[in-house]
Structures are given as structure tokens and as C-alpha cells.
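Quick one, T. Sequence first:
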Amino acid sequence: MRSGSRSTVAAVIVGLLLVALAGGGYLTLQRRAKANAVRTDQAPAAPVSVLSFGPRDLLTVAPSWIARSIPLTGTLRPVNQTVLRAKVAGEIRELPVREGSVVKAGELIARIDPIDFEYRIKEREAQLRQIEAQVQQAQRTLDNNTQLLAKQFISQSAHDNARYAYEALLGARDAASAQLTMARKSLRDATVTAPFAGVIAERFAQPGEKVSPDNRIASLVDLSRIEIEAPVPASEIGAVTVGQDVTLRIEGLDTPQVGQVVRIAPGTQAGTRSIPVYIGLDNRDPRIRAGLFAQGRLVTDVRPDAIVIPEAAVRDVAGRLFVYAIDGDRLVERDVRVGLRDAATADGLSRGPGDAGGAGAPADGPASRIGGEGPGARVEITEGLRPGDRIVGANLGTLRAGSTVRIEADTRP
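C-alpha cells:
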């Protein structure tokens, strides 16, 4: 009995110790929770992100135009150009033109020594006069023989011989006349003149040089009418028609030029799937020369009242297209859908209704309006934006949505 009592007392004592330990741990946990709550209440709030934008960074969406266009490239070449060649043999006595000389139609290009041709003309003229005298004599003989035959003083055979001689002399006279005509033509061909007004592109002969028929003397080009052959993909040719305007940028010139489609080839080029399109340009600028490289755009579709923004404003993250927009004083991401793309404004070839321009032009106020011509490509937004929305108009990197927006004052003069 005494041993059992001691075991019971020991168990009670152990139980009391465990209860005491558990109560102390609970009180400790309560104190720590209260202390953490006090620290949380007293800790300062996390700072709100603020993004500052310059007045040129933000754009206000406004209806504008956008055009779908086909890029074209080609080399300028004159519509009228020719190589002037010698038509007769001889020594060049005069050659007053050189490369770059401007000539009028009919102006002297070269003169070949005419002495041989002048003497040949005199020889042919003398031969013709001699044969004409013989024709007259044969005519008189034939007339006499006709009268004698009527009186039966001569035979029919004698009369026929006189007639045959007369007809032979007529043929000889025609041949002599043709030879005289050819001699006169050779004399005219000794003078080489410009068939049309233009510029001497190259001179192939020198004064004193002896040339043969078909030898090159000079090349002549007419720069008043220029043509460009540009390949167009077969998939795009259905949108091209004769008479369409084409805006051209020619190397070396700051001002775009406007040409028209004048011809379309009937088939594709060998080895390609492109069809040549010929663009005519009336040249009124003396700086435009043959052989210059030209780039152009053929507008096939114009939408005058579209929502248009700079392409740089559209962000593409894993196939998701969005723009950074301003909602109140916060920056938000706005999903958009893109329609037409016009790269013409990037190369200065954009032409719209009234030449109104493209995206990104500055305007009064804290933000620019999308509606004037800008330096980059533009895209049409078919969903996601409305007129009056303000967006970040350039690619400024990754921005934090939800940040507070602050617009800096424009301090530039």
C-alpha cells in the first residue's frame, strides 16, 4: 500500500509539471503575437511607384488615316534613249558634243568628211543627163520609125528594135536617177544630228577618227521622261492598275517624287513569282539622272478614319499585344488588336488624304495627338482603343502597371 501511494503521488507531480510548462509556452506565444501586431501597426506602408513622363512620351488617340501599300524598288532609266551610229564611211571632221552636252532635236552631233559624197553626186548627175539625152534621141527614132512603118517603108522588125532600144534607155534613166538619189542620201547621212532633244550620255569617237557604217559615235538620252521597272509579287498584282500614283524616294534627293503606273507586264519574270510594273515619271528636276536607285510605295488601300498609333507603342509579350495607357493617374495595360500596318511613314513616303501626315506629330497640350506624320511605322488598332485615350507613344521598356503617372512640364523652347 505504501509503495502504491508513492507511485500515485509521483504521477500527480509529473502531471502538474507538464501543465505548468504548457501554460508558460502559451503565455510566451501570446506575448510574441502581441509584439508582432504592435510592430506591424507601427511599420510604415510600402512606397507607391511613380512614373514620370515627358510631354512627348504620351499621345492622345485621335482618328487618322492609314494606307496599305506595296514597296517598290528599281533603277531610273530614260524612256527615250538611243545610240547614234555612222551611216557612211569616212573621217569625222566635226564632233562638237561631249558627255553632258544638252542638245536640241536636229542639232549637229557629228559631221563626216563630205568630199567623196559631193563628187559622187556630181558623177551621178552627169550620168543621168547623158542617159536622158539618149532617151530623147531614142524617142525621136521611135516616132520616125512609127511613121515609116505606117507607110510600109520599114519592116515591123525594125520598128520593134527601135521600141526596145527606147524602153531599155528608160530603164537606164530610172537606174541613174535612183543612184543619184542614193548619192544625195549618203551626203545627208554624213551629217549626224540628234533625233530628239536630250543629253549626250557618252561619246565613242573622236574628231579625225575614220569610222565605218554602224560604228558608234555617241549615245543620247532624254531625261524629261523617266521610267522605272519594279517587280511586284504575283499575290499583290491584283491591286495594281494603270494610272495609280506611286510615291518615289530617289537617292540623292530630299523631296519625294510622284509617278504613275503606265504599264503592267502580261506575265511573271522567269525564275521568280513577280510581275514587272512600269512606273513613269515626268522629270522636272535637273538632279534626276539615269541609273539612280529609287524606292517607292504603291498605295492600294486607304482608311481615312482609323485609330492609328506608332508601331513602337504596341508591346508583344508571348503573343499578347497591348499598349500602356493612362487611366486617371494610373498606368494600365490595354490589350489591342492590330489591323493594317503602314511602314511608309518610316521612310518618308507616306501620302494620305490631303497629305495629312501620320502618327506622332506634336500638338499643343501635355500630350501629342496621334494624327500627324511621324518618323516611324504606324499600325491600325481595330480593338482596344478609342479616340481620346492617352497612351505611351514609344517603347520605353517594361513599365509597372498600376504605377502612378506624373507628367513633367515641357521646358524645351
